[in-house]
């Protein structure tokens, strides 16, 4: 479904990029909510402060949302509380093959490329100039950072953050809620919850934050 009005949950630095994409695409941002005013970006003047605990008072019904929060765990948590429809924000310069499937709540930034037969889940971030090649499976709540390169037949598990400029060679499976460090080169499968850095990528610790 195409919407011409969208609400944002989150008013930080990541949210301002989503706002910019929506405006370029001719979509109005009707309301912006945040539960942590200290982190809001100066680009947002009117923010409705709300907390996730006010589930009953929150205006779940209305224009669809994008959860405009860069942190994967936070996006996941908000999605569990927010009982609304979701939309997407896709920059006009992104190159996305017509066979690609993209879930609701996902954002694709300037210059990103997504090649044939790739599936991108819900509430995913494909950041600026990221290259996601053919036959990838990107699960929900993933973030592929700027300039990261995912070769063909790569799988990225739920909630994993692939850092800026990381490279993942073909046919690699990265587990869920992992962090791939900036600039890492991943040449072997990565177990769930791993934090991996370096070339070749090595697990340095486990993600205990989830
Ligand atoms: C638009 C945007 O901004 S999108 C956001 C994109 N963000 C990113 O790409 C950030 C990705 N995050 C990283 O690379 C982080 O450094 C992490 C998550 C891998 C590690 O962070 P932390 O858990 O805080 O680990 P910490 O900084 O303590 O480093 C642990 C060790 O790993 C090393 N290390 C950390 N990151 C890297 C890296 N990217 N490459 C190589 N080594 C690294 C450190 O030097 C340190 O080594 P030492 O123990 O020998 O001193």
UniProtKB/TrEMBL annotation:
Coiled coil: none annotated. Residues 5-79 form the PglD N-terminal domain. Substrate binds at residue 70. Belongs to the transferase hexapeptide repeat family. Pfam families: Hexapep, PglD_N. InterPro entries: AcTrfase_PglD-like, Hexapep, PglD_N, Trans_hexapeptide_repeat, Trimer_LpxA-like_sf. Acetyl-CoA binds at residue 143. The active site is at 134 (proton acceptor). PANTHER family: ACETYLTRANSFERASE, UDP-N-ACETYLBACILLOSAMINE N-ACETYLTRANSFERASE. The record marks 135 as: Increases basicity of active site His. It comes from Hwangdonia lutea. This is Acetyltransferase.
